[in-house]
Structures are given as structure tokens and as C-alpha cells.
Predict the structure of HTH tetR-type domain-containing protein.
Amino acid sequence: MMEGMDETDTRQAIKDTALELLVRHGYRGTSFGDISAALGTTRANIHYHFGNKQTLVDEVLGDYMQETLSGLRAVWSAQGSSLSDQVEAMIAYSRARFSHFNPTGTEGRGWSLISRLRQDADLLGDRGRQMLGHFGVELSALFAEALSAADRRGELAPNVVPADAALLFAVIADNAAPITLAEGGFERLERTYRSLRQMIENRP
């Protein structure tokens, strides 16, 4: 254990540090040595808590997915929120994560664990690959429900098929980090979300 921490706190500190390093450097670029150096502990301590790198990465990924899906459900199912409100909340949610890894907004660094680990999917175990696939399924279901609700509220233009709009939102959300990396900043992602909203919303 690390000084002043019980086992639960130590495990969480290891996972928090692993998340930061995995997002920045990927599976290939993150080792127990890197994590132990960042934490000021020993590799043996990390082995004690997680056994091996794959177990640690699977647990970090599982926690990250659960937190992400919970956050997105809160955004897209908020009572009394319009489609416009939800899109703006989605932009704010994404910007907060982007800014954590790109504090000046111009570095063009990766900021999504899911996006980063997809690049290293060949190194993940079966559980890790299954979780990445499951995330896409959950994301699609989330947007399908959100856009169906928007349609029931009369917010979609008459020619818009809710399932098609949901697919487009899911694709943007699932590729948010690559979009910002390709453009070197957050602005293109923000514009993409707002442009899609303007294309599909019912206007007087």
C-alpha cells in the first residue's frame, strides 16, 4: 500500500494514474513501471493489486465505460431538456474531457480512453475487446431513445427518420476524439454537433 492509503484508496489511485497514462500513451506506451513512477510506488505494489497489465486495463476500461455511459444518459434523458439543450450539454460534457488533456485547447492530444484503446485492440484480451464492442451498442441504443423522444416532442423535422438521426449522433460521439485530433482542436466537433442539430430540428 502507499503511505496514508488503505487498499481501496491505493487501488483507485493506481487506476486513476493508469487511465491518465493510457489515454496519453495507449496500451503499448503504458507499463507498470510508468504507473509506479508516476505514483511514487513500486511495480510490486501494482502487481499485488492487479496481477497483470491486462487485468488492470480491463478494470480501468470497465470503470471508464460505466462512467461515460452514465454521464451521457444524464445528458440525453434529462427531464425538461429540449434537443437543443441536450446537444449543448453534450458539447459541454465533451469539452470538459477534451480540456483535461488539452488545457490550452490547441495541443491536439487524445482524450478518450475508448478511442485510444481501439488503436491497440490487437493487444487487448477478449474481455477488453468485448467491452469496446459493447460500448458502441450501448451508445447506439442511448441515441435511439433520445432521438425517438425528441420526435415525440415534435422537435424533429417531418422528413427526419429518428433512427437515422440517432445513427449520425452515435457516429459523431463514437468518433469525437479522432475528429478533434484531425482538426487540432475542439471547434470542429462543436460545429459538427450543432450542424446536425440544425439539419434535423423542426423549425417554425
Summary: The domain at 1-51 is CATH 1.10.10.60 (Arc Repressor Mutant, subunit A). The chain has ten helices and no strands. The mean pLDDT is 93. The chain has two domains: 1-51, 53-200.
